[in-house]
Amino acid sequence: MSIVNNCLFKDGDFFSIYVVFIAIHKPGSAWTILSRSFAEYCIVGWDNLPRTLLLYYTNFVSSPEGYFQTLTCNSEDYRNTTVNHDLRYITWDNPPKQHPRSLGLKDYRGAVLSNRPFARKFKKNDRVLDKIDRLLLKRHHRHFTYGGWCSGSGEMYNTCSALQSENYGVLKPGPGARRLKSSLTRALSERNFRRQQCR
After folding, report:
1. How many whole angstroms separate alpha carbon 199 and alpha carbon 87?
2. Cβ atoms within 10 A of the Cβ of 40, count?
3. Is the CB of residue 3 less than 8 Å from the CB of residue 31?
């Protein structure tokens, strides 16, 4: 499954895809989450579409805002695997500029209530980052956030973390996990999922 945002174009004739895209370009998100099989298709591209399309996008200001979306929607194997949501909390100036507005303390509540697991963009060392560390990640100042993952495969990876016996490293779902589940459930619901596929 690929998660992309906006600007999903589909057409049988590659040349008309290019012309249509130029004429009605509405940029999507440059931030995408790709499945391994789709990433391999982008590299190997058994039908040569990924490389051909890449040539057309070479001179665009921000080619990632349309490349993956257009490639996904014009690939028979992947066109119905997209989730039209980029999982990021972003705010824009009005009217929008080329880049999103930097998030600050006044955006914290809106970001949390959006149920989106990612946000951008932040200024370096902004106070809102300290608040996220403290309240959401439970990170102490100048310390790492403890956590661990277990793969569950192989003899070496039978435990989730070397610190498990000390009650560190065990990830337990909290309010953020519930917000993420709610957001993904809504994005993948039958009502939303199919009608936001490639058009």
Report:
1. 21
2. 12
3. no
Q: For 48-67, what is each residue's pLDDT tens digit?
A: 889 888 888 888 777 778 88
Closest CA to 25 of 8, 38, 42: 8
Structure token pair of residue 22:
């130029």
Check: CB of residue 2 under 8 Å from CB of residue 78.
yes
Query: Residue 127 is inside which H or E element, if any?
Result: helix 127-131
**pLDDT tens across 112-163, in order?**
998 888 898 999 999 999 999 888 887 777 777 666 555 555 555 455 545 5
The single-letter DSSP state of residue 167 is: T
How far from the centroid of its chain's Cα atoms is residue 132's Cα?
19
Phi–psi pair at 83, nearest 5 degrees: -115, 115
Q: For residue 103, which phi and psi values (nearest 5 degrees)?
A: -80, 145
Query: Checking phi first, is residue 136 left (phi over 0); if not, alpha (psi -120 to 50) or beta?
Result: alpha
Half-sphere exposure of 75 (CA within 13 A, CB side): 26
First to last CA, the chain: 17
138: number of Cβ within 10 Å: 11
Nearest to 69 by CA among 60, 61, 79: 79
